């Protein structure tokens, strides 16, 4: 997953401002804030559901696929990003699925 672009730090901007801009950018791309502190933010979003594929599988299997889909939706995978400001004020993103 490619990280969304972040705005460069403007003149007089602080590292905390850079973190706030990065969080706002990720929220604009569908992420939700799970944890936020002055030096770290944890954001996540659910991965997309492929509607056409699931409709086709439901039709092909005579509806049995809906049982599997219901279980899968309860445990649907999430994309997670952790944004951390290091000791030098540089924003370091870490991604996981």
CATH topology: TATA-Binding Protein
* Radius of gyration of CA atoms, rounded to a whole number: 18 Å
CATH class identity: Alpha Beta
List the helices and strands in order: HEEHHEE
N-to-C terminal Cα separation, in Å?
Answer: 9 Å
Q: Which word captures the global form?
A: rod-shaped
Tally of helical segments: 3
Total strand segments = 4
Number of domains: 1
Label the structural class.
Answer: alpha+beta
Poorly predicted regions are none
What labels would you give this structure?
97 residues, alpha+beta, TATA-Binding Protein, four-stranded antiparallel sheet, transmembrane, transmembrane helix, membrane
3D architecture notes:
By secondary structure, the chain is α+β, with helices and mostly antiparallel strands. The protein has one domain (15-96): TATA-Binding Protein. Helix content is 35%, strand content 27%. It is built from 3 helices and 4 strands. It has a 4-stranded antiparallel beta sheet with strand order 1-2-3-4, covered by helices on one side. The radius of gyration is 18 Å and the shape is rod-shaped.
């Amino acid at each position: 997953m490619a990280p969304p672009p972040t705005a460069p730090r403007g003149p007089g901007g602080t590292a905390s401002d850079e973190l706030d801009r990065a969080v706002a950018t990720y929220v604009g791309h569908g992420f939700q804030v799970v944890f936020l502190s002055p030096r770290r933010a944890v954001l996540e979003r659910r991965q997309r559901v492929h509607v056409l594929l699931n409709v086709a599988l439901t039709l092909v299997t005579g509806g049995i696929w809906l049982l599997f889909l219901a279980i899968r939706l309860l445990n649907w995978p999430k994309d997670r990003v952790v944004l951390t400001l290091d000791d030098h004020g540089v924003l370091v993103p870490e991604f996981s699925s």
